[in-house]
Amino acid sequence: MLVELDDLASRLPVALSPDDAVRVTVLLSDAEEIVRDAFARVGRDFDAEAAASPWLDHAAKRVIRDMVAAAVMIGGNVGQASASSTTGAESDSVTFGTDALGVVGFGRLILTAAHREELGLPVTALPSGRFPAPWRWPERRLR
After folding, report:
1. For residues 81 and 77, what is the distance between their CA atoms, to the nearest angstrom?
2. What kind and span of H or E run contains 107?
3. Are residues 18 and 82 in contact, defined by beta-carbon separation less than 8 angstroms?
């Protein structure tokens, strides 16, 4: 694996419980698989490029740590837009909306556009094909 459990655990602001450590190990493996798949989808070999370019190995480690740290830190609060709590007469409120950051999903890790850019992968797809030239404006002359 590119990133070991200790590499990530030393960077997190909270200590991992033994149960969390098992989950994080699985997430690290999943994140590495996502990065390798992203390279394969554009017809590139991650291992060959990482051997030829040392920066890619470092970038992949940063991306994997970022993906997994987001999943661990956000955890069960995915999609939570706001929360409030009142102590006297006990009042709790949680509002769910969309994940505005788009960095974590329910039960999966997300390779964001920023991650793709850091890895040197194409961020957006451009249209391809042959299209007729657009009409000239105005299409007809007014007299």
Report:
1. 9
2. none
3. no
Phi, psi (deg, nearest 5) at residue 44: -120, 150
Write out the two tokens for 121. 């992968």
What's the rounded Cα separation, in Å, for the pair 12 and 121? 27
Paired sense of beta strands 91-96 and 108-109, if any: unpaired
Query: Hey, what are 141's tokens?
Result: 């002359």
Q: Which pTM value belongs to this model?
A: 0.71
Nearest to 105 by CA among 124, 64, 77: 77
pLDDT tens, residue by residue, 88-136: 778 887 776 655 555 666 567 889 888 999 999 988 766 667 778 877 7
> Which residues on adjacent β-strands are paired with residue 96?
80
Strand partners, 82: 95
